[in-house]
């Protein structure tokens, strides 16, 4: 075990834990932002530089500060390490710079973007950015690319976090897309004339932190904060698929199906394309109850959780969901 | 005349063949190391020599070797970084094309010291003709028993492969090089783990520059202590300097570290002064990635002492009044050089070569280049000058690999030392954008 101090708060974590995950154990507003890091995907992190933190003491054995800011998502803790995040002005200044860099080419089309309300970059910019930009040059733009029946690639919005590449690499049988070109001409693309339609490829939509990869069956149907997320499951015939999903309702219609995510927007269990794209009827699913959304998203502003659901009445509810509901009970009337 | 340890026989006809190279004392270090020394003793000699990495960083080579993890039963690798491609640096290409056997000899001795049985030379793809020369020399070394199984009956085996890269500057960064060598896209890896622990194919690996590996040959032949007698302080031995720009005699010079910069520029033994009788304006001493210095600060330190061609002397004053020896890519600029145009030119290079993996470098290098383009072409404003300094600061130190710094330092240093020239470009747009226009004043020392 290693004892570290993060923004003045002491915490003990197992050896090998990253600074980011140590901070997540503390929780709250001090957790560094992550645009490229994604816990369920091996090898992610270290690219967007959004989570840079200052290590003012390397360890108890060697208390020298680290010369540069370090990416908290891939730097492991040492016993006696002292880390400054929100308490360090240099970190906050750099983070402001990173927001500015990421927004150089990312269009501020939040009013029409399907990711609005769930966009990590939107939250990151709101929390760390400034209201104006100093960038006066021409922006990079791309034609929208049709990469298959289910997924729309809007490269103009891409911040090259590589999450979708790792997802395709680690979840699908055959990877047909990756990063082409280099520098600010780099882009996500498929090998010539290929489409992304492998089983599990839909998960690239869930991991995309911005609106670059969107669900064709959901695009432009509704703003996310006007929908009601409901936990549901089905016995999926695909052994790799968890079958545990969130159904996004508008009235009686299921507009979208996604995997379940934790409070940091990371998928808990992957789902297959059949569950995601082809099961849009309530009768396909066993409904568990409203999804608890804790993040600072406008989705939670709707108080859609008001109808209290009694977990006991639902048969075959997974252990994880019962635990989740116990920890985050549905809101009571009159809140 | 200083001593020539690497290039003594470089002009001997046929020195690129095994036979002639051998006649001039070639492969003595291999015989000495394999027959009379243990691997640890070879490492110890390199440590004693004080040799510092000749690729640019200047990290002590012996110390780097001693960091190599040596778990039992796990293969280790030596990789020679021959992906030289920084503007102003062209020494390795010359060394390899003229003296291919010197590099191969260094590779054998170094691989023996590190316990590597498979080594690689990762060469820049554009240097196809050098690749052919190396392949021929390697075949000769195999034919004469210096490569392959049981070299010189010592029981030591070594296979040496030469691998052409895809022609990206970033592949000269050691971890990007390893990725490329593994057949992947040349993106730098996050460190740690360092290559000494987890390098090529996740095995302990040492990556050294061509010149560093070649320098192992005279170190073993003459002994580390003898080698350390050359040079000044912690800058020991000799160094190849590729001098270019507005010099009377641009070229590649092997100098004993410690030669005064003034002597290097003006003496007939080296560059022979500035061409056309013009005055020197500025120098980039270690390849385009290091800070540019005006004439006054490259010839003398801020304290008024003569600056020497050593790692320490050139960096005297830090990044405010100093620079770096780097890879030895010495670019001299005469009084007719437009610093804004030059800085834009460097920026274009780093913008083009950024791999695009991390956001500050991907977006920042392009931003720098575009603003500098505006300034150079008479469309800039005064606040653009502060903007590029600010953007450079946002990139520096916040990227995965040092390409971010390489892009930021030249810009920050150019504004630091030649701000008045940038301002002149804004206030005298018409005059500044006239072909061949040059700021009429002198540098203002900070």
From TrEMBL, chain A:
SMART domains: NADH-G_4Fe-4S_3 (SM00929)
Predominant cellular place of this UniProt entry's protein: membrane
Subcellular location: Membrane
Cofactor(s) listed in the protein's UniProt record: [2Fe-2S] cluster; [4Fe-4S] cluster
InterPro entries found in the cross-reference section: 2Fe-2S_ferredoxin-like_sf (IPR036010), 2Fe-2S_ferredoxin-type (IPR001041), NADH_UbQ_OxRdtase_ferredoxin (IPR054351), NADH_UbQ_OxRdtase_Gsu_4Fe4S-bd (IPR019574), Prok_molybdopt-oxidoreductase (IPR050123)
Domain of life: Bacteria
Family to which this protein belongs: Belongs to the complex I 75 kDa subunit family.
Protein known as: Fe-S-binding domain-containing protein
UniProt source species: Hymenobacter oligotrophus
Lineage: Bacteria, Pseudomonadati, Bacteroidota, Cytophagia, Cytophagales
TrEMBL record, chain B:
UniProt cross-references to Gene3D superfamilies, sorted A to Z: 3.10.20.600, 6.10.250.1450, NADH-ubiquinone oxidoreductase 51kDa subunit, NADH-ubiquinone oxidoreductase 51kDa subunit, iron-sulphur binding domain
Entry annotated with the keyword Zinc: no
EC main group: translocase
PROSITE patterns referenced in this protein's UniProt entry, alphabetically: COMPLEX1_51K_2
Keyword Iron: yes
Cofactors named for this entry: [4Fe-4S] cluster; FMN
SMART domains on file: NADH_4Fe-4S
Ranges for domain NADH-ubiquinone oxidoreductase 51kDa subunit iron-sulphur binding: 340-385
GO molecular function: 4 iron, 4 sulfur cluster binding; FMN binding; metal ion binding; NAD binding; NADH dehydrogenase (ubiquinone) activity; NADH dehydrogenase activity; quinone binding
Pfam families: Complex1_51K (PF01512), NADH_4Fe-4S (PF10589)
Highest taxon, organism lineage: Bacteria
EC number: 7.1.1.-
Keywords, comma-separated and alphabetical: 4Fe-4S, Flavoprotein, FMN, Iron, Iron-sulfur, Metal-binding, NAD, Oxidoreductase, Quinone, Translocase
UniProt xrefs under PANTHER family: NADH DEHYDROGENASE [UBIQUINONE] FLAVOPROTEIN 1, MITOCHONDRIAL (PTHR11780:SF10), NADH-UBIQUINONE OXIDOREDUCTASE FLAVOPROTEIN 1 NDUFV1 (PTHR11780)
Stated name of the protein: NADH-quinone oxidoreductase subunit F
The species this protein was found in: Hymenobacter oligotrophus
